[in-house]
Design a protein that fits this description.
alpha/beta, Rossmann fold, 7 helices
Length: about 220
């Protein structure tokens, strides 16, 4: 599904180049649950953004479902991102002035899904994630765990092939964190590829394979 060969990224500054990723070569198969683990500044989130096609400023070769991503322009990359990826962030990234139901509807509106179909999909997500009673509340009226639950629901409502989770439970207490991680595990068992970033060994262990990053390099 995902093949990277010598992917690198650097930032140019007055003193020269600061390398964020160095010679990343890997393969991730469809249906896997993969963890990228490492300390802050290791390049984990940067790599996740490249995999998710939100960052196009890098060198090397990247193939996704047979498509050569390094040969695409920004518009083409973003079209693939919208069609195949769902993102879950540590800080939720919900829109505060939209209700729970409206937050779930938003990614569907970007895909030009008919309003009647969107209403059905939103209702299904609210029921599936057991948040029907929260549908008219705003994010600030929810607990951290509830907000992240909505964020995961929003990530999967478009039925993505891949969920990218960047420290998805980093700001939650242990019980809430385990609830979210168990949910990601169930989604993976249903066929969705999950790629997460974490520095926590307990959450890292949910991955069937663990890649360790340090100073931009993949460790053996």
């Amino acid at each position: 599904m995902i093949t990277m060969n010598n992917v690198e990224k650097c930032y140019e500054n007055r003193s020269g180049a600061t390398w964020v990723l160095r010679r990343i070569t890997l393969e991730i198969r469809a249906g896997e649950f993969v963890t990228f683990m490492g300390p802050s500044g290791a390049g984990k989130s940067t790599l996740l953004a490249i995999i998710g096609m939100l960052d196009g400023e890098w060198q090397g070769a990247y193939s996704f479902l047979g498509e050569e991503i390094h040969s695409l322009n920004t518009k083409q990359r973003l079209a693939l991102h919208k069609r195949h990826f769902g993102f879950v962030f540590q800080q939720y990234h919900l829109i505060d002035d939209l209700t729970v139901a409206e937050n779930l509807d938003l990614p569907l509106s970007y895909r030009d899904v008919k309003r009647s179909e969107r209403q059905v999909l939103v209702a299904d997500m609210l029921d599936r994630f057991q948040i029907v009673a929260k549908k008219d509340l705003f994010p600030t009226q929810l607990s951290g765990g509830q907000q992240q639950l909505v964020a995961v629901a929003r990530a999967v409502i478009g039925k993505p092939d891949v969920i990218l989770a960047d420290e998805p439970v980093g700001s939650l207490h242990t019980d809430q964190g385990r609830m979210i991680m168990d949910l990601l595990k169930r989604l993976n068992e249903a066929g969705t590829t999950v790629i997460q970033v974490t520095h926590n060994p307990e959450w890292a262990a949910y991955g069937r394979r663990i890649f360790k990053l340090r100073d931009g390099w993949l460790e053996d």
